[in-house]
Structures are given as C-alpha cells and as structure tokens.
Amino acid sequence: MTAPPPGSHAQSTVGAAALARRITAFAGVPFLSLLAPFIFLPVLARHAGADVWVAIALGQSVGGIAALVSGLGYSTLAPPFVAVASIEERRRLLATSLHVRVPVWSVAALIAVIVAASLAPEANRAEAATMAGAMSLAGLAPTWFWIGVGRAMPILWSEVLPRMAATLAATGLLLLGAGPIWYPILLAIAMIVGPAVVYSRIASAELVDVDRDGVIGVLRQHPPALIAEIAGGAYNALAVAVVTSVAPVAQAARFVSGDKAYRFGQYSVSALGNALQGWVVEAGPARMGRRLRVVIALHLSVGVAGLVAMGVGGPWLTTALFGTDVAVGEATALGFGVAILGITLGTAFGRIGLITIGARKAFMSCVVGASIVGVTGLLVGASLWGASGAAWALGITEVLSAAAQGTVLAVLWRRRQRTDQPPTHAPTATA
User: Fold this and answer.
1) Residue pLDDT, tens place only, 115-140
2) For residues 67 and 196, is the Cβ–Cβ distance under 8 A?
3) CA distance 152 to 23
4) Is the CB of residue 368 less than 8 Å from the CB of residue 401?
5) pLDDT (tens digit per residue) in 182-225
6) In sequence order, what are the residues at sequence separation of 6 or more whose Cβ sits closer than 8 angstroms to the Cβ of residue 133?
7) Angle, helices 87-119/125-136, rounded to nearest 10 degrees
8) What's the distance, Cα to Cα, between the start and end of the chain in Å?
9) pLDDT for 75-101, tens place per residue?
10) Within the chain, what is the greatest distance between any pair of CA atoms?
C-alpha cells in the first residue's frame, strides 16, 4: 500500500486523524493526573487533623516552587528541539538535562525541605518536609522529552501510573491506621523509579559522560525561560493569597471556588500545548508557518469554548461542587472565562510560537510583566469589587499578556521572512 501523495486530500485526512489521536492522548494523561489527588486527599481530610492537612498542602506548595527552579525551563524550551533532533542528539539532550538539573535540584530541594518544616505546625513538620522533598522531584521528570517526541504513553507508564499506585497504597495505609507521612514517602519513590527507568533505557551511555560545554550552554541560555516559569508559577500560586489579603472573607471564598474551577480549564490548555509544542516543528521549517496557524486556530477554539463554558456554567459548577455559600456569581465566572481565553492564546503565541523561533527573552519579558501587572490588578480589583473584581483583573491581565506575545510573534516572524532567516533554530545539546 503506497502513501498518499503530498498535499493530497487523503494525506490531509491522515494528518488530521494523527493530530487528533495525539491531542486525545495528551489530554488523557493530565486527566488521570487530576484523579490521583482526589483519591488520597478526601481520606486525609476525614482521617487526619487540620494540622496534617495544612502540612501536606504546605509541602506541596513549597515543593512545587522547588520543582520549577530545578526544572531549569526545560518544559518550555526543550520540546521543539527534541522534536527535530536525531536519536543521538536526543540521548545527549536527555543526559545533559540530568547533569545540569541534579545539582540545582539538590540545593532547591534542601531549601524547600527546610522552609516547609519551619512553616508547618510543630507536630507535623516531618510530613511537610517530606512532602516538599517529594514534590521537588517533579523538576527532574523527563516529561518534556516525551512532549517533544510526541508520545504520551511513556508519560503514563513512567510518571502517572506510578504516582497513582503510590497514592492508592498511601490511601490504603491511612485507612488501616498508618500515618499520613507514607503518602509523600511512597510518592517520592514513584517519582524516582519511573524517570530513572527512562533515563537508564534511553541515555545510559551518555549519563556517564558529562558534556561540560552543554551544561554551560544550558546555564547561559535557559534563565529567561526559567524566570518566566517561576514568575508565572508564583503568580498563579499566590493569586488566592493576594485576594485573601485585601478582600472580605466571603468574597475571598468565592474567588477560591472560581479559582479551583479555573484550574480545570488550565489543565485542558496545558494538554493541548503539550500535544502541539513538538508537532509544530516536526515537518521542518517549510511547513512551520502553516502548522503554527493551525496551533493558533486550535487554541483560539479551545479558549472560546472555555470562555463560554466557564461564563455560563461556572455558577452552576461551583454551586454543585462547593455549595451556594461560596459559589461564584455570573460576573466572577465570566472574568475567569476571559482568563481561560487569555492563557490559551498565550500558550499558542508564547510557549509555542515565541519559544520555537528562539525569542526567549521576549517571552520572559511578557510573562514577568504580566505577573507584575496581574498582582497589582488583583489587589485593586479585589479591594474594590471583591471576587468579581479579582476575577476580571486576572482575565484582563491574561488577555493583555497574550496580546503582547502575539504582537511580538507577528513582528519577529515578519522580520525573519523579510531577511530570509530560518523560522527556528537547529537543535543543540543545550536545548
């Protein structure tokens, strides 16, 4: 059976079907990741005290920041390079990533453990510290590698399923009377074993040979993406704290409810971005422009759908999940819907578009600038109009950030076309 000729309707149909399967696969993995915490946390809430609940949550938050730091921007920068790299280059990319990230992780994890232990309730410092250490291990995961390769199943068997198994085991132990500290311990084991298998199977030979030039190159080239990831992550993590500091308790509670529903929308956007981040460059520079337009169109569709779903269904959803006392109103729901539209377009223009053409500093500037404006907007909006003001501040900030990234992308793309520059860079061991 011969392949359909290039550009034919049959080839377009095959390509569309393959892309649909890819998006579906990458959408399923985050969904399963979402299920794991809902297995353990309800049991923890009912069988442990408030101090343990706070300690585990604190460890997750602090450890998550450590994971961002130790990830060194690989999730943002590396997938497009992995997508077009040879097998040998992919092995070297994977090995170099571990060589440069492990020392950073060791420092970040130690700091996270100390901070979590010092802030946690005195009786549960061990749980907070262990949870922080476990969560920091996410920074060493090879998720970005499989996103670049375009394969979701290895993420499932090496990361998601081991974590789910650890969560189920910890839940069973908690029900049998064991302490909650088994949750971070088993989670840490799962987060070490799964990725270790991937590294040893793919880059075992390269792991024993450190590419010093590659390591130095990463430390020179990755800071803009790392700063952008930390700024964006901190802004998202601290949004609730900022609103709580200035808004009445009832209004802050409604914002928290809307924020939790908003997070579900973020997972959908992340899944779509993961599916397309490597795909946009796989066919080579000649077809990158067309694929980037497809990426933007798909993200726009998802963003509009998220805007409508949150704007219309947000009040009903938060009422069903959290009760009428803390459910969001229509204005608040619509503000969060606008935020979903903004982050969706920002993913297409920034994380995929700007990063693919090598505009790392421009991407960093847009994200950091939006985070600064966003914090100011949250403070003003929440203090003047409560939950709805904060939600609209979040939404307007995300849309402005997306608009800035889209404008920069359009300007740089046209400039490259006028000067006949390639739209993307060749892969190197530094990603």
Assistant:
1) 889 888 788 889 889 999 999 999 99
2) no
3) 9
4) no
5) 989 999 999 999 999 999 999 888 888 888 888 888 888 888 88
6) 63, 109, 112, 113, 184, 188
7) 160
8) 38
9) 888 888 888 888 889 999 999 999 999
10) 69
**Which amino acid belongs to residue 30?**
P
Q: What is the CA radius of gyration of the chain?
A: 22
* pLDDT confidence band for 379 (50 / 70 / 90): very high
CA distance 268 to 77: 20
Rounded CA separation 40/301 (Å)? 34
Which residues, 6 or more positions from 405, have their beta carbon under 8 angstroms from its beta carbon?
346, 349, 350, 353, 354, 362, 363, 366
Cβ–Cβ under 8 Å, residues 300 and 308: no
Tell me which residue has tokens 């803009």: 224
Q: What confidence tier does 427 reach under pLDDT thresholds 50, 70, 90? A: very low
325-331 long-range contacts (CB < 8 A, ≥24 apart) are 325/253, 326/253, 326/254, 326/256, 326/257, 327/254, 327/257, 328/254, 328/255, 328/257, 328/258, 328/261, 328/387, 328/391, 329/254, 329/387, 329/388, 331/388, 331/391, 331/392
Q: Higher pLDDT residue, 351 or 234?
A: 351
d(CA 133, CA 138) in angstroms, rounded, equals 10
pTM, 2 dp: 0.76
CA 236/CA 374 separation, integer angstroms: 10
- Give residue 305's pLDDT: 93
Task: Give the distance from CA 248 to its chain's centroid.
Answer: 30
Gap between the Cα atoms of 166 and 182, Å rounded: 9
